[in-house]
Amino acid sequence: MAATQIDIMKIRQLLLLKSKNASNRKIASEVGIDRNTVNEYVRKLLASGFSYQELLAFEEKDLQDLFPSKEAMDKDRYASLLGLFPGYVNELKKPGCTRQHLWNRYKQEHIGYYSYSQFCQLFGDWLDSKKVSGKLHHIAGEKLYIDYAGKKLQIVDKETGEIKDVEVFVGILPASNYTYVEASYDQTRASLVKSVGNCLVYFGGVPLAIVPDNLKSAVTKASKYEPVINKTFRDMGQHYGCVINPTRTYSPQDKALVESAVNLVYQRIYYHLSKMTFFSLSDLNNQIHILLEKYNRYKMQTTGISRLKQFIEIEKEHLSVLPNAPYLIKNYNRAKVQKMGYIYLSEQKNYYSVPYRYIGKHVEVQHTIDTVEIFYSKERLATHAKSYRRGNYTTNEEHLASTHRYYLSWSREFFVKQASAIGENAATYIGKLIDQQAYPEIGYKRAQGILSLKKSYPGKRIEKACLKALDYHICSYKTIETILKNNADLEPKTEQVEHIIKPHENLRSASNYK
To answer: Rounded to an integer, what distance in angstroms lies between the CA atom of residue 121 and that of residue 131?
Structure first.
C-alpha cells in the first residue's frame, strides 16, 4: 500500500509524467506529493503488468482498484487467493501461461473474485514479500544457466600427498530450480563441453537455450548485446538442438539465479564434503552426486516444494529429446592446400587430400577424435577418417588431378613393368634399385629417372647399361647415366675387368680439375 492515499487525478498525472519518462523526483515536485509515496505508487503500477499508456485508458474504478484500502480487503477472500499464489508461480513457468489465464481460472472457481487489476496487484505484492523475481519470468524448458563456482574443491594425490584444486561446474534450470553439480580438473573448453553433456544427461533432455556466464571457454568476445560464441561451443549447441545465449555483461539480474544456486551448493554440498578426503575426481563426483540428490529433494522455503518435484511437474515434459550420441568436441585449424593437393594436420603430423582445384587456397579444418572435415568458404570439400599414423597420406583419388593420380599408381610392380618394355636387364635393375631403398618413394623417383633416359638414348643402350651395372653393389640413376655418357655400354667385353675403373656416381672427370 502507498503510505499516503492520493486521489485519482494525481494518479493520472503521475501516469502521464511516467509515460514521458519523467523521474520519480521530478513527479514528486510537479504533482506536489512526497517522493516516497511516488515510489510506492510507481512500484504498484509496475506490478500490475500494464504499461503506463494502458493504465491511462483505465476507467476510474479500475484504476482505483489497483490501490485498495486495507478496510476494503476481505480477509477470507484474500486468504483464499493467497493460498493459490504458490501454485500460480509454477503455472506461470509453463509455456504460454499468463496472469490473464490464471485470473480467468480464478474467476470461474470463486464467486467473490477480485478484478483483474486488483488480482495482479495482490499477486505482485505477494511475489515481493517472498522475494520471488518478477523481473525475470522463467519459462519451463526455456533455459539452462551454467557457471563455475568461485570456490574450488580438492583432491589428494595418494603417492605424493599433493593437494590439487579442482573446478566445480553448476547448471540450473531456472523455472524449477533443478540443479546439477560436477567437479572437473579445469575450465578448459573440453572440460566445459563434457560437463554440459553430463548435465543434459542428468536432466534427461535439452532446453531451448544454454546460458553461460560469459565463460572464457564458451565466449570468444563478451558483449552486452551480441557476444561472440566460440565455434566449439556453438557447434555443441547445434548438436543438441539448442542456442547458446550468454548472460549480458553488466546485467546482474541475468546471473543472480545461478549465483544464488552456487551459494546454496556451498551450504548443502561443500560443507559436507569439507569433512571428507578424496583421492580421485571420480570419487569426488560420486559423493557430489549423492549430496546433489538430497539437495534437489529439499523443500524450498519460497514454495514449500522440492526442486525435483517442480522439475517433474512443470519442466521435464518441456525439454527436447537428447540426441542419440553425445557431442564430440571439434578442433578447428587453418591450413593451406599444398601443391600436391593435400593439407597438413600438425596434431598427428599427417596429410589429407583436397580437390586439386583448391591448391594454394587457405581452408578451415574441423576434426574430432574420429573424422577430419575440410571447408572452404563454409563449403565442405572433403571428409576423411582420422589417421593416427604419423606422416600418413589419406587420399580420395577423385580429389587429385590426372598427373597426381598417376603418382598414386606408383609401385615396384608399376616401374618393373615399364622397364620390361626396354628389356629384361632393365626390369631386373630397377627392381633391385627400388628394393635397396629404405623409403620406396625414393626408389620410385630414381627409377623414373632411368626410364626418362629413353628420351636421350635408345632402349638397347639402356638395356646394356643396366646389364653392366648389375655387377655393381649399389644401384642408382647416376650409375646408368654415367655409363651412357661415357659410352661404357658400347665397349667390348674383356676379361681384364679388374683393371677397368667402374663408373661411379662420385667419379670426377678431368674437367673438374681445370
So the answer is: 15
Q: Please name the residues in contact with 230: beta carbons below 8 A apart, sequence gap of 6 or more.
A: 189, 217, 218, 219, 220
Pick from 194, 155, 159, 200: nearest CA to 178: 200
Q: Which amino acid is at 167?
A: E
3-state secondary structure of 54: helix
DSSP string, 119-176: HHHHHHHHHHHTT--SSS-PPTTTEEEEEE-SS-EEEE-TTT--EEEEEEEEEEETTT
Grid coordinates belonging to 41: 505508487
- CA–CA separation, 332 vs 329, rounded Å? 10
Question: Residue 435 is placed in which grid cell?
Answer: 628394393
Integer CA distances (angstroms), 84 to 122, 137, 298, in order: 12, 18, 21
- Among 297, 298, 292, which residue's Cα sits nearest to residue 272? 292
Are the beta carbons of 433 and 411 closer than 8 angstroms? no
The three cell numbers locating residue 411: 609401385
The whole-angstrom separation of Cα 243 and Cα 321 is 15
pLDDT in tens, 215-259: 554 454 444 433 444 677 788 888 898 887 765 444 445 566 777
Residue of 76, 89, 84 lying closest to 127 (CA atoms): 89
Report whether 155 contacts 288 (CB < 8 A): no
8 Å CB contact between 263 and 181: no
**CA nearest neighbour of 261 among 149, 127, 132:** 149
Cell matching residue 228: 561472440
Give the chain's residues under pLDDT 70.
1-5, 67-76, 90, 93-97, 111-112, 130-137, 214-230, 246-256, 302-303, 400-409, 438-441, 493-514
Q: What is the DSSP string of 393-441?
A: EE--GGGS-HHHHHHHT--HHHHHHHHHTT-HHHHHHHHHHHHT-SSHH
CB burial of residue 373 (10 Å; 0-12, 13-18, 19+): middle
Question: Cα 300 to chain center, whole Å?
Answer: 33
| Residues 41/14, Cβ–Cβ less than 8 Å | yes
pTM of structure: 0.47
Residue 409 CB-half CA count within 13 A = 13
Cα 382 from Cα 374, distance rounded (Å): 5
Give the span between the Cα atoms of 177 and 138, in whole angstroms. Answer: 10
Among 190, 185, 121, smallest CA distance to 155 is for: 185
